[in-house]
Amino acid sequence: MTEKQAHGELLVNGNFAIGDFSGWMSWTPEDMAIVPQEGKNIAVLAPVPYGAKVVLRQLIDRESSDGAYVVGYWLRTSDKQGDAVRGVTRKATINLVIHPTDGGLGQFYILSTVATSSWVKHVFRFWIEGRANQQFELYFKNEKLQPQDAAAPPAEMDNYTTVSLSDDGPDLATPNDDDDDNCAFALRDAVLFKFPPA
User: Fold this and answer.
1) What gap in Å lies between CA 143 and CA 52, rounded to an integer?
2) In this predicted model, what pLDDT tens digit does every residue of 37-89 receive, in sequence order?
3) What is the dihedral of CA 44, 135, 105, 110, to 10 degrees?
4) Are the C-beta atoms of 69 and 195 separated by less than 8 Å?
5) What share of the chain has pLDDT > 70, as a percent?
6) CB within 8 A of 152, min separation 6: which ones?
7) For the chain, where are the E strands, in sequence order?
């Protein structure tokens, strides 16, 4: 868990340049790995059974959370070595949760994302107003056989406001008719950026 500067990049090791999962939590070597690809490091998330609670996540404490933010990352389908898997797509489960340590209501952001055989940049923007201390949690998971309501908040977050953010990335990815839930996906260059005050 980290407390970063007032604005700028908030994630630690979001590009996995260190070569390991420093800054990230809740990973297991058999289900996630850092591998070199195309001159940089990427994280590969293998498919796991639904409900396995295998999640790559990062927690960030914010003493002052008001402002404009962007969440971004690149995804593609992958084998265990990080090489692209051609002809398949994978719906990835990615969420940003704002935990209300200031006593207000929590926010559960759904970042609807599809991994394809080519790297695609995904960008989501959001704003926070009138809030003080909060904890940000960004997480990625790759669960098989997910039910239709898998993107909904867990029971312990029933009182959180659910918001589905629109992808502002330059190239929107479209899923195939048959989602391949037995396929890994690769992640690189994750960012959570807070813009300086205007």
Assistant:
1) 8
2) 989 999 999 999 988 888 999 999 888 788 999 999 999 999 989 999 999 99
3) -20
4) yes
5) 95
6) 162
7) 2-3, 8-9, 32-37, 40-45, 56-62, 67-78, 90-99, 107-111, 113-115, 120-128, 134-141, 161-165, 184-194
